[in-house]
Structures are given as C-alpha cells and as structure tokens.
Amino acid sequence: MEKAVSKDNGHSFEDYFKRATSPMMTLLILNEKPMYVYKLSQELEKRSNSTYKMNFLYPVLYKLQQQGYVEEYSQEITESHRTRNYYAITESGKEYLKYLLKTYRELLSAVEIVINESMGLEEDNEKK
C-alpha cells in the first residue's frame, strides 16, 4: 500500500501517528526491562508485525530523558568495541506512561465512536 502524503507538508498520517505515540511505545517497552536503542527498535518492530518501525528513536529517548522519564541505566562495550547505552524507565516515567495510556485509550474510544456513527450514517444514506 502506498503511503498517502498530505499536500501541505509532505507528512503522512502514519508519520504523525508515530510521532504522537512514540514516547508511549518507548516507555511501554522500557517498562519491562532496560534496553539499548537498537534492541528497543527491534522489539517495537517485532511486536507490531513490522508495522511500527521507528527510524529516529534517539530523539525520542533524549527528550524522555530530559523530561526525567527515562535514564541511562548502564553502558556495555561490545566485542566490536562499540558502546551500548542501556535506557530504563524512571518512577516518574511509569506515572507518565499511565497517563499516556489513559489518554490514548480515551482518544481511541472517541475516534471509534465517531467512525462507527459515521459508518452507520453512510449505511443509512445508501438505503435511501
């Protein structure tokens, strides 16, 4: 399926959706255990059946870190002498995640109501 792009700025609905939900998705995964960025990205992609790919995870993590929701947990030097920074969710991050999930569910429910009502109206109009 081709990615639909808005005419005004070149961003798709999918881009906006991912931008809006990426902090929540990141905190959800980190709530299970600390991870480094590549592993976090792989987990998101795997759990979403390759639908939710985040190419720019570092800015999300840095912002969450600045806000106090994520902290650098530890560092590891790999066999190839690369440094892996592990990130962990903080207590305030867990509280923020609860808020995000509640808000997400409320918004999703409201959107579903509008969609279902609109689809019902379309069916009524087709019968006329």
What separation lies between the terminal Cα atoms?
A: 33 Å
Query: What top-tier CATH class fits best?
Result: Mainly Alpha
Structural class: alpha+beta
Whole-number mean pLDDT: 86
Question: So, the CATH homologous superfamily?
Answer: Winged helix-like DNA-binding domain superfamily/Winged helix DNA-binding domain
| CATH fold group | Arc Repressor Mutant, subunit A
Q: Low-confidence parts lasting 5 or more residues at pLDDT below 50? A: none
Number of strands: 3
In short:
The protein is an alpha+beta fold and 128 residues long. The protein contains four helices and three strands.
Kindly describe this structure:
With 128 residues, this protein is of the alpha+beta class. The chain is built from four helices and three strands. It has helices at 13-30, 37-47, 57-66, 91-127; strands spanning 35-36, 70-77, 83-89. The chain has a three-stranded antiparallel beta sheet with strand order 1-3-2. Strand 2 (70-77) and strand 3 form a beta hairpin. It is elongated and about 60 Å long.
List keywords for this structure.
4 helices, 128 residues, Arc Repressor Mutant, subunit A, 3 strands, alpha+beta, 59% helix, 3-stranded antiparallel sheet
Q: What is this structure's SSE topology?
A:
Layout: H1 13-30, E1 35-36, H2 37-47, H3 57-66, E2 70-77, E3 83-89, H4 91-127
Antiparallel strand pairs: 1-3, 2-3
Helix pairs in contact: 1-4
